[in-house]
Amino acid sequence: MAVAASYADDGRLSPLSTPSATRAVLEAHGIGTKYTLGQNFLVNDDVLKKIIALADVGSADRILEVGPGIGTLTIALLKHAAAVVAVERDPDLPAVLADTLYPWREKFALIEKDALDVTADDIASAMVELGADTGCPDRASSAANETARRAVSPSEDCLSESGCPASAPQGDLQQCLPNKLVSNLPYAVAATVVLDYFQQFPFLESATVMVQKEVADRMAAERGTKNYGAYTVKLGLYAEVAGRFAVGPGNFFPPPRVDSAVIRLNRRTPVTADGVPAAPAVIAAACLMADAAFANRRKTLANSCKTYFSGRGTFALPGGLGKEGAAGAPDDAAAALHFDGAAIAAQLPALLEAAGIDPKRRGETLDQQEFLTLGASLLAQA
Ligand SMILES: C[S@@+](CC[C@H](N)C(=O)[O-])C[C@H]1O[C@@H](n2cnc3c(N)ncnc32)[C@H](O)[C@@H]1O
């Protein structure tokens, strides 16, 4: 812990938030920054403070961080939160993090993986490993481990009404799993990570993430604008924008070639036209209709969807059952619904009519609610 031993109590949120401290860590470990992994490390303590404030990180929060790098933002998070679980794919960085995060090692766990391959099981295991101080069941308890595993991965028998575990383990686990994603994301995968994590990890209540400015613009785009597309619609079915601020290239080492923004998204539960929370299957179907509607954004809804579905063959839609009627992660793969693209293409006029949507409209004129209605119509036709 050569680096951690030299931390001065100088009022900084993170002792690594300067170019010289960052260089010193890299030199101490004989490594450089990797452009291919989007390694632009934060070197401005004020930006860290603004991230912590926007994410509203407090002592009860359990944080999921993607791409901790050398631990600059991680230290700021660890000073405020109950625990941090981070996901990092650079094999050179675990040793660095063991050094820089040494004073907080009891409440930090690392998942050494590509962020796009991380499962809820990986996260549950990491949290259980952290133990009782973080609000999780003790790391020595194999029963607790089993509770966590079952609660995030419903077993086969959970697909029958009688076989589902009682809601209590879910509640226990909810108090243990990360409730906030806070990250300076690798820009190459940032948009995918945010949408995937809202879709796959229902325990995440919010995401406060540094992304390329253009990605933040797509996340926050208003209907009818050029940035409004399938991604905006899909993300909007899971989350709503709760704040953002701009960050220039000079706040990173090395400076990226693009402007950045930190954006906060809060999970939302969309409600169907009947006023009930949309089931996962309806949300998944609405996402599919968004992809179809924007497949060719200059075409009418009817034509864009027809081209999209005609070329798709048969496919499965995740998130089948939705039997609790609530929004959440897609259900088990066994619950997937199967569709034939050509059959949907043929049914499109009826589908659009049932949804009460003019087939001559273009995708960019539809709001999230209308996509939900289209998703429900698609399921009704299945
Ligand atoms: C922009 S840097 C952020 C570093 C640090 N959090 C900070 O703010 O200084 C992005 C980090 O994500 C890591 N990374 C890149 N691609 C990744 C992936 N697919 N999965 C997990 N981590 C990844 C990089 O190695 C790097 O540590």
UniProtKB/TrEMBL annotation:
Keywords carried by this UniProt record: Methyltransferase, RNA-binding, S-adenosyl-L-methionine, Transferase
Protein EC: 2.1.1.-
Domain Ribosomal RNA adenine methylase transferase N-terminal intervals: 47-269
Gene3D superfamilies per the UniProt record, alphabetical: Ribosomal RNA adenine dimethylase-like, domain 2 (1.10.8.100), Vaccinia Virus protein VP39 (3.40.50.150)
Signal sequence range: none
Binding site for S-adenosyl-L-methionine: 40, 42, 67, 88, 114, 184
GO molecular function: methyltransferase activity
InterPro entries: KsgA/Erm (IPR001737), rRNA_Ade_diMease-like_C (IPR023165), rRNA_Ade_Mease_Trfase_CS (IPR020596), rRNA_Ade_methylase_Trfase_N (IPR020598), SAM-dependent_MTases_sf (IPR029063)
Family: Belongs to the class I-like SAM-binding methyltransferase superfamily. rRNA adenine N(6)-methyltransferase family.
Protein name (database record): rRNA adenine dimethyltransferase family protein
Organism encoding this protein: Adlercreutzia wanghongyangiae
